[in-house]
Amino acid sequence: MEHLEYTFKSSGGICKIRKIFSIVGVVASGNLEVMMERKNLDGGSHFVIDTSAQGFDEAWKAVITDFIERNKPSDLLVSINDNAASPAVVSMRLDQAFEDLTTE
């Protein structure tokens, strides 16, 4: 298991959260679970990742940076439990969780 954490300063966006939290996905082979919740982070976002695949920290950073640039969240805490999901699956689950969190 590898534990990764990434903190992003304010993206200039506003996270219009409609729910207390969002959970999508399932921890299974080639998949992951993403949990999102609002947390006062001075406008920033914090990602906590536990993954079975070691040595992919640059890939994680790239996928998360892409998510931040596209969605511009603020005050967002994201917890991820991963079982070797591909970057495409990670991106999809992040988008699903954010959409669930921010839409009614």
- Summarize the biggest pleated sheet: 5 strands, mixed
Q: Can you give the helix content as a percent range? A: 25-40%
What is the strand arrangement across the widest sheet?
A: 1-4-5-3-2
% residues in beta strands: 25-35%
CATH class: Alpha Beta
Q: Tell me, rounded to a whole number, the average pLDDT.
A: 93
Describe this structure in words.
Helix 1 (57-71) links the parallel strand 4 and strand 5 (76-83). The chain is of the alpha+beta class. The longest helix is centred in the C-terminal third of the chain and has 16 residues, at 87-102. The model has no long low-confidence stretch (mean pLDDT 93). Helix content is 30%, strand content 34%. It has one domain: 2-Layer Sandwich (Ribosomal Protein S5, domain 2), CATH 3.30.230.
